[in-house]
Amino acid sequence: MIPIAWYLIFSAALFCIGLFGALARKNAVAILMGIELMLNAVNVNLIAFWHYYAQIHSRPYVHGLAFTTMVFVVAAAEVAVGLALVISAYRRRQTPVVDELTLLKG
C-alpha cells in the first residue's frame, strides 16, 4: 500500500503548479487551467483521506466521495462560467490577455 504522505506530496506539488499557472500567466484560458489543477489537487487529497479513513474504520463511508463529487460539480460550473466570460471578452476586445481586459472598469 502507498503511504498517505506520497499522496499529500503529489497533491501539494499539483496545487503549487496550478497556483503558479494561475498567478504567472496572462492568458485567461491558462489561468482557468491553473485553477482546475488546484481543484484536482483538492480531489486527490479528499480521495486519499477517504481511502485511509475507510481502511482504519473498516466501514464503507461515502463522505469523501460525496465531497469529491461536489468539487467536480463546482469545477464544471467554474469552467462553464469562466469560459463563457473569456469568450465574451475575447469577442469584444479581440485579446485573451487578462491585463488588457478592462471591461468592468468605469
Structural class: mainly alpha
Euclidean distance between termini CA atoms = 57 Å
**Approximate shape:** elongated
The ordered string of helix (H) and strand (E) elements is HHH
Family: Belongs to the complex I subunit 4L family.
GO biological process, one term: ATP synthesis coupled electron transport
Main location: membrane
EC number: 7.1.1.-
Provide an overview of this structure.
Keywords: Cell membrane, Membrane, NAD, Oxidoreductase, Quinone, Translocase, Transmembrane, Transmembrane helix, Transport, Ubiquinone. It is found in: Cell membrane; Membrane. Its EC number is 7.1.1.-. The chain is an all-alpha fold and 106 residues long. Helix content is 77%, strand content 0%. The protein is built from three helices and no strands. The chain has helices at residues 4-24, 28-57, 63-93. The model has no long low-confidence stretch (mean pLDDT 85).
